Amino acid sequence: MSTPGSNDAQSPYSNHYYANGHGTSVVPPVQAPPGTNFTIEDMELLYHYMVSTSTTFSARPFFMETHRQAAMCTAFSDPPVMHSILAITALHRAHLASELPQRRHYVTVAMMHQDMVIRDLRKRVEHITRTNAPGAFIISSFLALFTLGSMHQLDSAGADAATTLNFDNLGNWIRLMRGVPKLLMQDNVLEWVLESPVGAMFRKEKEDWPLPLEFEPRFALLGEVLSDSTLVESLEERTTYVAALKLLKHWTANAHAPDDATDLVGTALVWVNIVEDQYIDYLCADRPGALMLLAQWAVLVNRLEGLWWATGWGKGLMRIILKRLPESWRPFIEEQAREVNAWLSS
């Protein structure tokens, strides 16, 4: 399996993991725990998932259909997966709601289901088996998107509430986004997932697309700044940034592949999930170099603007970065900030 820092590491919720010859077979069912009941409203949410929410995780028909089938096949024998589906769907309904009481209702429903999911996942990851691994993967995948979609001002009556970010601490969301790769790196877990119905989601794709020429100067500047010992004194920190930049450049190139050649959702989100833990530590400490790299990732995420769970993330994240970045560093990301309409002239 690829390591988190490698260029060929794979997306945790796209079809970048692939079977390499593994077949697809049905895993033994997970028995529903006693007292698992679903309401009429839950069934309404399930219908909404089938006809609407499940189409918002990718622009590619193949991935949408295989993801929907794999999730439903697993959910009917693994109730926490069903709760995960209902949680992300209720959150979607909250984003669509035009009235604040309705929005608050769906947020409450989403959080109720998500609480059940988190309780199960905490226990499940302590003892991953062939039987429960596929469900753990789906739950963790939905958790990443739920995290992004829940960081908006959904408790506000403002017209732009569902498109405005509602956090200031980068550590509040980024660690939640990184659960799937760690899960898959446990012994045998990836193999078990690939052998299950979930394995149909994964297929081999080209992942060495060249970076468009117009981005070369930008990445060259990032490289110069992040390797400058007068700006980043620690050799360890510079080394971490150079590795993170190389990875970000790789996935930026893949995200700009020809239409239908790759899954934009997966390629846009993968970097923040697989970049080294040391980089995340620097980011949570508001180190300028780490913030600068995240600004370039914000440009990538901005390409997902049309998806409800990603709306506002590019511009909103860039503005948070600009507030935290020392003034002397801001010119280094002016081009990125202007690209997402987040640059504030002094």
UniProtKB/TrEMBL annotation:
InterPro entries: Fun_TF, Sterol_Uptake_Regulator. It comes from the Eukaryota. One of its GO terms (molecular function) is DNA-binding transcription activator activity, RNA polymerase II-specific. This is Uncharacterized protein.
